[in-house]
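Slide 14.
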Amino acid sequence: MPALVYPLMVEQGADFTLSIPVLNASAQPVSVNGWGVAGQIRATLYDATVLHELDLTPSGSTVILHIPGGISAAWAWQSGRYDVELTSPGGDISRLVEGPVLVRPNVTR
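Slide 15: predicted structure.
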């Protein structure tokens, strides 16, 4: 199944949590317990610098993405690109979700 394209809008300084469902080609839930999961945010698709390593937790048939407000409060950048990849116990890698990241700056500090 192709990766879901999902834009992230992060409110700087506020906790951000997203629950991403994991489905097979028949749109049935897939258990990802014991799977590897990794994700990054970069300024552009081809940028060598990682702006942020995503905090990801596989749980049942979902992957939980969490960005604490204390982390995003320190970000000096306002946009980027991200993706999340799953690695099955057999070593197969698939992209779960990808898209742009927009950081909405906070005024209250």
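Speaker note: The chain has a mean pLDDT of 95.
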